[in-house]
Amino acid sequence: MPGVRSFLSCIGVSGSGTVSVLGDLFGFIRNRVPPDADTTVRAEVSLLQHMRDLQGRHVHVNVIRVGFDLLSDSGLSDAFEKIDYAIYRTRNIYRPVNLTVGRVEHYFIDSADANGRDNIGSEDEANALWEEWTVHNNGVDAFVVRTISTDDFIGLSPVGGNCDKDEKDDALLAGEINREPEGFSRTFAHELGHFLGLPHTHGEDCPSSTSARNNLMAQTRCAPTLRGAVLLTSSQGSTMRGHCSTRSGC
Amino acid sequence: MTSAADAEARLTGQSEAALTAMAAGQGAVTARIAAVRELARRRAPAGPRALASLLAEPAAPPELRSAAASALAAFAPVEAEQFLEPGLRAGEPEIVRRSALALGRAGGPRALATLQAVPMPGDPAARRALGFARNLIAYRHGLTGERLAPVSRGALLPLPEAGAQSLSPTAMTAEAARGLAAAIERDPPGVAVAIDGGAAMVCGGNHLALLPARNPGPLTRASAVPAILFRQPSGLHDYGIVLYILSHPVSEGALALFGLRPDGTLTHAGQAEVAGREARFRVQALDTPHSPPFVIEGMFDLQAPRLSVTRAQVAPARAPGQVRPRVPTRDPR
Questions:
Q1: For A205-231, how does the pLDDT look when each residue is reduced to its tens digit (9 = 90+)?
Q2: Which of B102, B176, B194, B317 has its CA 20 to 30 A from that of A208?
Q3: ipTM value > 0.90
Q4: Which residues from chain B sit within 8 angstroms of residue A124, using beta carbons?
Q5: Long-range contacts for B57-61 (Cβ within 8 Å, ≥24 apart)?
């Protein structure tokens, strides 16, 4: 198997100088494995497993924090931990359908520059956020805001997002950092699932079958548990792997 | 901790008193916000005072105070005016912004005077909201002040000669009408619109509905809000407001049109010619990062009131030279 620097090069990360495997290859902003939301479970990552995963289809993600400068020091530390946990968990959720998160880049927009978009109050404001900001690379722009102050949604994404950053619907709102880690991370994976082409498994009424309610693409209000309702079918995996933003294996 | 949607689901059987207690209690902020919105959705008689207390409580979480301000827009103008005014002077930009936007939707001429008396905030989003609130009240009530500045032709994005896509017109289905009615009840736009007189279109996976104002007023003589554009994005079950269309007369039978997002961002402009009971309109995207080149043309029957769209086209991507989105700052490695 090729070495770490080869994988870094493949996903578009410079391997020159000192490299942090957990920071540069896994994309954890704190350069360490985040703790599991379930304190009885120890979170672990495997370098070998991740390199094998990267030999399959993967999707690069730009995590864009909005308005986090207004958080306290401890709040910011918790926020970083939640973001890392969302990355960690999304990989674990997608692994059964042979898809992983490749490169993760971290960006920020301070509250003073955010034009009020650090507190999203409507679907239109979420759209305005990703119309006003973009990262010009081949990663999916996933915005994480300080607050979502409507209860109409807890995350938002086009179904089958656009890979051309000059077009509409080219990003997603991955959630608000106020939520607890299990819910936030599920929403992160759920919204990225939308972007990769997956619709909900139901309409306005929650599905009756247990399998549909335990699917990642069931809305949170329908999910029996935030930890367990993260299943994906092989057909959904096929859809995600076929999306224009997913890359070939390294 | 539960999600907001989970919290909402638990509220349907709650009494008004229980909701009021929940909103004022010490529970999770998401649950308190859900209670605030449920009070507004029900137009609960105790709602205005309960929400006003939250808005005026400096120790309450800012997002809760903001939600209380937004929720007050659902109540009668006199109550909204009375209780939202302190929010305009809260100092916290987010609360000022939400209070102004709510007052813009709910308020009358007295609220306009209140908004005009408030110093313009330094925060750009709060300043934009305050300005838009003044515009919306003035245009909705046919007042002559607070007119939007003319838009130069050069600011309009022309459609490319090739590649523009037509938006497919669709019938206003019963399901769409129900969705629009629910959206209007949940998030009152401040203008009475005629769902059955609207025009429906599909743009990619998004469903659009351009709805005429039920009582647009004498467009050739006064400012007005003749239409509102709603959208149901792909992946969501709900419609939401995306554009207020404001108009004012500029010459005999000619109107200037302005398309503003619900937060007050000016993104579209155009003109209309009024002849008899009909107005022929054309609206285009402005050179902003918000929309690729886009044009919509149609006819507005002022008496019915009914809108028909004769042409709606959008470019597949932003135009060369168009204002681009900004790039966020990357964390150092």
A1: 899 999 999 999 999 989 999 999 999
A2: B176
A3: yes
A4: 231, 240-242, 261-263
A5: B61/B29, B61/B32
Distance of CA B191 to the CA centre of its chain: 10
Q: Give the residue from A118, A151, A156 with the most B CB atoms within 10 Å of its CB, the best one to mutate.
A: A151
Asked if the Cβ–Cβ distance from A108 to B331 is below 8 Å, we say yes
- Closest by CA to A62, choosing from A87, A30, A31, is A87
Q: How far apart are CA A62 and CA B111, in angstroms?
A: 43
Query: Cα(B293)–Cα(B230) distance, rounded to whole angstroms?
Result: 19
Per this entry, what is the length of chain A? Answer: 250
Which runs of consecutive H residues, i.e. helices, occur in chain B? 4-9, 16-24, 29-41, 47-55, 62-72, 77-88, 93-106, 109-117, 124-140, 174-186
The CA distance from B224 to B142, in Å, is: 6
Is the pLDDT assigned to residue A117 strictly greater than 70?
yes
Q: Are A59 and A141 in contact (CB under 8 A)?
A: no
Q: 3-class SS at A160?
A: coil
- Is A149 near chain B, with CB under 8 Å? yes
Q: What is the per-residue pLDDT for B235?
A: 64
Residue reference for tokens 């969501």: B236
Number of helices and strands in chain B (H, E)? 10, 12
Q: Taking CB atoms and an 8 Å cutoff, what residues of chain B touch A148?
A: 4
Verify whether the Cβ–Cβ distance A119 to B205 is below 8 Å. no
CB atoms within 10 A of CB B38: 23
**The tokens 């409580």 sit on which residue?**
B57
Helix axes B124-140, B93-106, angle to 10 degrees: 10
Report helix, strand or coil for A75.
helix
Chain A residues in contact with B330 by the CB 8 A cut-off are 105-107
- What average pLDDT values come out for chain B (333 residues) when binned by 10 residues? 46 86 88 86 90 93 89 84 91 92 93 94 94 97 93 94 88 92 92 96 89 94 97 82 97 96 97 95 97 95 93 92 96 83
